[in-house]
Specification:
Elements: H1 3-40, H2 45-49, H3 53-77, H4 103-111, H5 114-128
Helix pairs in contact: 1-4, 3-5
Length: 129
């Protein structure tokens, strides 16, 4: 097979793979954010005001620690999901950098968490006054 034709096909598969991985990470980010919000519940500012600000900051840092662990787990689980075009013309799904880069997951995960965002906004507003 012509080298350029093979290269064109492999790069096309790579572009499809990047879109596939992006969609998987983004979807999983939304799902995990929704589950996180269900677990933590609705942010209650009245209850939060009863706590010392230091406690709220520590809770926020614990959330971030937990989120870091979740991101790590997801980043290590996603490569286990098979890509349907893997192996075609020698294409190796696991060599695509986006497979192990959880950037899209992190964005979706943090962007769609209402509880975390509300707590963060509350802490910033208290600390800025």
């Amino acid at each position: 097979m012509n080298y350029y034709k093979k290269e064109f096909i492999v790069r096309g598969i790579k572009i499809i793979d990047i879109g596939y991985i992006t969609a998987v990470y983004f979807t999983l980010g939304i799902i995990m954010a929704t589950l996180s919000d269900k677990y933590f519940g609705v942010f209650n500012e009245k209850e939060e005001k009863k706590k010392p600000i230091g406690q709220s900051v520590i809770e926020l840092l614990l959330y971030l620690w937990l989120f870091g662990v979740i991101i790590y787990i997801v980043r290590n689980v996603i490569p286990l999901i098979p890509f349907p075009l893997n192996g075609i013309y020698g294409f190796d799904h696991l060599k695509v950098k986006e497979v192990t880069s959880a950037g899209m997951f992190t964005i979706a995960f943090l962007l769609f968490q209402k509880h975390y965002q509300a707590k963060l906004k509350y802490i910033v507003s208290v600390l800025s006054t």
